Amino acid sequence: MSIEYGEYRNNCKEKMEKIKTPCYLKIKHKLSLLFSDFEDISYNDFWLMVDNPNKKLPQKKFVITDKFDYRLPIYEINHNPFTPELNKIISEKYHLIEKYVKTQRDIKDYIVDYVNTKTPKTVILYLIDGLSYWDYINASIKYNVEPIFVNGKTTTENGLKNIVYGKNGIPIAKELYKFGYKGYGQTYWNRKNKLTDILFRYISEKNIFYYDENIHDIIVKNKQSKKYIQIYKIGLDDDAHKLREVSKKSIINKIKEIFENINILRDILNQTNQPYLIVITADHGIKWDFTKKYRKGSHGNISFEECFVPLIIIEG
Ligand SMILES: [Zn+2]
User: Fold this and answer.
1) How far is the CA of 240 from the centre of ligand 1 (A)?
2) Residue 278 Cα to ligand 1 middle (Å)
3) Nearest 5 degrees, angle CA 140-CA 131-CA 183?
4) How far is the CA of 157 from the centre of ligand 1 (A)?
5) Residue 298 alpha carbon to ligand 1 centre in Å
6) Which pLDDT does position 231 carry in this prediction?
7) Residue 208 to residues 150, 186, 238, 307: CA-CA distances in angstroms?
8) Separation of CA 262 and ligand 1 centre (Å)
9) Which one of 3.10.620.30, 3.40.720.10, 3.40.50.720, 3.40.50.360 gives the CATH number of domain 99-315?
10) pLDDT above 60 (res 7)
11) pTM for this prediction
């Protein structure tokens, strides 16, 4: 790659501790900034501050990540913040994370915006209990994924509420009803369960089913009409609390099995020749401790594994 004279004064792959500030910083994801004591500032704000003769420059390690020119050195770091390395800083910097990543409460807005612009015939929200971003990555599933932060407690109730009710407290089923979408649900939980009630509010009880086949039928029989289907699957949360024989391998196999079922669902949707959207995510992740005899998985606390869930979008 040729670099034009004056364009870059310094462009090299650096370790964070070698970087001299102020500078421009090329970075894969801004969350990496939490591993440093750098102060993130926009190009415009930085130069406004520098050009103002009445203002003394604060003693901070400024880095600019949004725009580059010849005025400062440019560094590039190759760092992925979405690994268990995040556990080193997650408690201390917890309050800053929402600034840099998408959260569960943003998912509903994404769905509503998508429906508003593309009006797919079928919208599916597929909730997998206890699937962490990290376990998803380790299972090597072919779908692209984005890490999503759990707002607040990493419990089933809080995570599901974040996703289904979003920022304004209105359930997705109600939001989509305004666009003419009829609501359906699938859960293995008893309808009388308190959480089922919260999760499936605004979906008629007669439209809530237990089996995959019921949902497949609805898709095929109503292929011309607009529908919203909310699916809740036990995923890995059950294993975390009960099974003795849970292992890394059994977790990966379970995730593969879940996605084989999702592939079947996708194939059925493809056969309808109608546009659709499938949004897959989880209430919280699980932190596994395989040295334990029982209850090898836990959640409810703050860790990278518990606080980051996957977001997978399948369009057709
Ligand atoms: Zn859960």
Assistant:
1) 10
2) 20
3) 110
4) 7
5) 10
6) 97
7) 26, 5, 21, 29
8) 19
9) 3.40.720.10
10) no
11) 0.91
